[in-house]
Each structure stands twice: as structure tokens, then as C-alpha cells.
Amino acid sequence: MILLTAAGSRTQRHVLSHLRDAGQPVRAFGRSLDRGWFEARGVTDLVEGDMLDRDALRRTMAGIDTVVHLGPGLNGNEAIMGRFAIDAAREAGVRRFVYISVIFPQIDYLMNHRAKRQVEDHLISSRLTFTIVQPQHYFQNIDVKRCLETGVVALPYAMDRRLGFVDMADLGEAVGKVVTEPGHDFAYYPISSDENLSGEDIAAALSRIGGKPVGAHRIPLDEIVAMLAPHFGSADGNIDASADIITRLFTYYDRYGIPGNGRVLEWLLGRPATTFEQYAARSLEGGAE
Any signal peptide, and if so, which residues (predicted)? Predict the structure, then answer.
């Protein structure tokens, strides 16, 4: 039995898709789960709970062989939630812990990267068998249909700054392989495509795809913080912490960007990583989530 934490997230839904295709039994744990969505995919073992609830985590991990843990994005309690999940897994006799972290967790200025590094540190000393997967920025953060409708790619950092990207579906497939195939114990896998794209690059690609001009626009930092902080911080009343995390994240992107390399992902998948144009075409067909 495989347990997915934060199972209602987009990331874990992609992981679930590949686990179910491989015939793996799954238990889903999360704060709020769409039962209809899970049941339609053959998953009926659903547990609603909070990752700050240590007793709930212990109960949920009973009978579990492998945990695939994902912390909540841009949340001030992410590090402690990760430690609680690792401790609960150890106490429940879980055999293996797969952690979905972030590319370059050693970037100390980024509070969300620092939190994930702390979770990695706790996992390494837990005596659990582990695999750490470190994904890049998601293509799914680009709403292709909306960009083509509005004629604008809007991002909260400089339009000439390049970031590495990865398709969430590729990440889900890679994690599925890590869980179901042998040979991944005690491994660290940075997960990225080979495309390091600026907002201008994305706008140019969408102009080609849509056959009409698409421009690139920078969203002011205060606007994106006001938009995102209540969403990511409201669940546990920690909106200020989320605002600080978001401010640092996009300040760093604006100044430095974050590059990526696709060799590890290609090796895991046995094929080239999905490109932005492939993702965009799938998105227009309604299959990108």
C-alpha cells in the first residue's frame, strides 16, 4: 500500500495516475479530498486530516509500505509538517519514504527551499529508506488558454529572466517509476526539462502556436503577494509567513532565475522530457491540468 500526502494537490494527482496505471494500491491523505474524483480512479481508501496532526498521521500510516510525501506549497509550517510525516512513518514501520522536494534546496535565501532542505536533512537521518525527488518550476503555472485569449504572458519577475521548467505529468511519471521500480534507494533526483525559458521566450512560443502576437508582462510584486498569500496561508492562519515566502521567491527569480538540466529526467523516463510547445499543445486539447 502506497500513501500519498497532500493527495488532492495537482502534483500528487499526476503521481496517482501513474501509480494506478501500474496497478498499485493507494491510500490518499489530505485536508480536503474530492471523493468523486478519487473514486472515479479506483481509489476508495481516503483519509481526511491535517499534516500538523501527529496522531492522524500515525493512524494513516498503519499498514503502509511506501509514503510519497509532498509538503504544502508556500506554507510557513512546511518544515514541521515534513518532520511530523517522517516521524510518523518511522513509528508505523513504513519501509520507504519518497519525498517530493524542490530543485536546489540549498538556496538559503528562499524560505520554501530552506524548509524543504530541513525536511531532507531530517529524512536522511531518519534511518528510513528514502528517495528525494527535486522538481523544477512547473509548466502548469502557465495558463496557455488564458495567455492566448488575453494576448499576454503575465509573470511576477523580469521578462528576460530564464527559469528551468518541468511538465507536472513528467514528474508524476518519474515519481511513479521511483516507487514501482527497483534501484532508487537513497537517490537524489533533480527533475527538470532542458528548457530554461524567459517570459519573452514563452510569449514567442505562444505567438507561434496561436498564430497571433502574445506579449510578456511583469506582474508587480505587491499584486502577486496580495493574490497568492491568502490562498496559501489561510489554511493554517499563517498568511504573513506565506507573504514573506512569496516575496523572497519572486525577488530571487527576478534577480537570478533558476536554471535546470534535463539529463536525469530523461534517464528516469527513458525518453526526452516534454517541451513547452508539447505541453502547450496538450493544454489546448484539455489534457494538461
Answer: none
Cα angle 196, 198, 200 (rounded to 5 degrees) comes to 140
Give tens-digit pLDDT for 27-51: 999 998 999 999 999 999 999 999 9
Please tell me whether the overall predicted TM-score, pTM, comes out greater than 0.90 for this model: yes
Write the secondary structure of the chain as one string of H (helix), E (strand) and C (coil): CEEECCCCCHHHHHHHHHHHHCCCCEEEEECCCCHHHHHHCCCCEEEECCCCCHHHHHHHCCCCCEEEEECCCCCCCHHHHHHHHHHHHHHHCCCEEEEECCCCCCCCCCHHHHHHHHHHHHHHCCCCEEEEEEECEEHHHCCHHHHHHHCEEEECCCCCCCEEEECHHHHHHHHHHHHHCCCCCCEEEEECCCCEECHHHHHHHHHHHHCCCCEEEECCHHHHHHHHHHHHHHHHCCHHHHHHHHHHHHHHHHHHCECCCCHHHHHHHCCCCCCHHHHHHHHHCCCCC
